[in-house]
């Protein structure tokens, strides 16, 4: 109860005296140099992570370097950093792979319909169409079915294009599930890091702990533990935004592929007679 009262009194005095003008003198707090978060990868007594210092302790100009924040946050932040790198790689890969020219070129269907007005193109032309894009791959499967069996039924023709369409759809959706998982798990991983930090900090407040119940050190320790939650949200929010963007883009592409296949199936009806 005494520690709780001291803790409340500290925050009241801190608010009145303006936090930005308050500086803790390390010489006046001998225990200050001994109290480092146990999550830190640095040894106890490291100046970069003394919890008794204010923001200026990280940098002489009062700006906290990113690497010092990562060190202070401790080991739980490293899985979040790995997730952020993986999410960035997935976003770059999907931006490259989901270009319109690689999936569904705007005039490709019109060109195929124009070429097949009088006859079905040969295997070489069909192969070039297949290598053109994802849409070309779906349309080429229908042309191959006609070349292999001019008397194939409409159901067989649709089955060929649908099976190819499922393969293309799986390729378009590739890695999106991983990006969605990162968006969902990153806040939980950040919360886990904060909880671990809180356990360590309040454990050090036990009788006989290094801090001696100093509320200033406790407050700074809590702020460092919250770095994990903040970083988890920083990773999760962009990942969620990009996941929804790519998900909508893939759905639009799949609709285009389906409608184009239906159009080609009706167009090729004359060659099945």
Description:
- With 273 residues, the chain is mainly alpha-helical.
- It has one domain.
- The protein has ten helices and no strands.
- The protein has helices at residues 2-16, 66-73, 77-97, 100-103, 108-115, 123-132, 134-148, 154-172, 176-204, 215-267.
In terms of topology, how is this protein built?
Blueprint lengths: L1 H15 L49 H8 L3 H21 L2 H4 L4 H8 L7 H10 L1 H15 L5 H19 L3 H29 L10 H53 L6
The chain-level mean pLDDT equals 76
Q: Spans with pLDDT under 50 lasting ≥5 residues?
A: 1-8, 10-63
Query: How many beta-strand runs?
Result: 0
Which structural category fits the helices and strands? Answer: mainly alpha
Kindly give the count of domains. 1
Largest sheet: none
The number of helical elements comes to 10
Question: What's the gyration radius in Å?
Answer: 31 Å
- Secondary structure: helix percent: 55-70%
Strand content: under 5%
Shape: rod-shaped
What's the N-to-C terminus distance?
91 Å
Order of H and E elements: HHHHHHHHHH
